[in-house]
């Protein structure tokens, strides 16, 4: 649990579990090794069509060795709330992501969500699963 927690709670490691095509870069300077409630993290990212955007999230909740929550303050979504939970299971650690979001642009965003956004998010989280399994093994 400690090894997984140390990895996922370090903002510096997020790039390692994000697909390269997203052009993901943390642009906040002098971030601490561990996140804390109230921490603001800024990124540059290309979520769709190679268009660079700034994404700013706030870490709103942290319970060490259990979960943390990031919420978008500035970025590509109308609303983004992402819970990262970990729990000990037989022979390993299970990580569960719970994401609540609203696409931008009202009705057009709803269409884009059905056609593109939801699939892209599923692809990103599948990539993260694969990368984490590479680092820590499958349970």
Task: Describe the protein's architecture and organization.
By secondary structure, the protein is an alpha+beta fold. The protein has one domain (2-136): Alpha-D-Glucose-1,6-Bisphosphate, Chain A, domain 4 (2-Layer Sandwich). It is 27% helix and 35% strand. The chain is built from 2 helices and 6 strands, in the order αββββββα. A 6-stranded antiparallel β-sheet has the order 1-2-3-4-5-6. A hairpin with a 3-residue loop joins β3 (53-63) and β4. The longest helix is centred in the C-terminal third of the chain and has 31 residues, at 106-136. The two termini are 12 Å apart.
Layout of secondary structure:
Blueprint: H1 2-8, E1 25-26, E2 40-45, E3 53-63, E4 67-74, E5 79-89, E6 92-102, H2 106-136
């Amino acid at each position: 649990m400690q090894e997984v927690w140390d990895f996922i709670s370090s903002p510096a490691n997020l790039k390692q579990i994000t697909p390269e095509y997203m052009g993901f870069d943390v642009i906040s300077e002098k971030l601490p090794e561990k996140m804390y409630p109230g921490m603001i993290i800024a990124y540059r990212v290309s979520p769709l069509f190679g268009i660079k955007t700034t994404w700013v999230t706030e870490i709103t909740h942290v319970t060490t060795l259990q979960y943390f929550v990031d919420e978008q303050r500035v970025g590509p979504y109308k609303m983004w709330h992402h819970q990262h939970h970990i729990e000990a299971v037989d022979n390993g650690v299970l990580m569960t992501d719970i994401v609540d979001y609203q696409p931008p642009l009202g009705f057009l965003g709803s269409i884009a969500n059905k056609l593109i956004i939801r699939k892209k998010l599923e692809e990103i989280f599948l990539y993260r699963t694969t990368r984490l399994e590479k680092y820590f093994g499958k349970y």
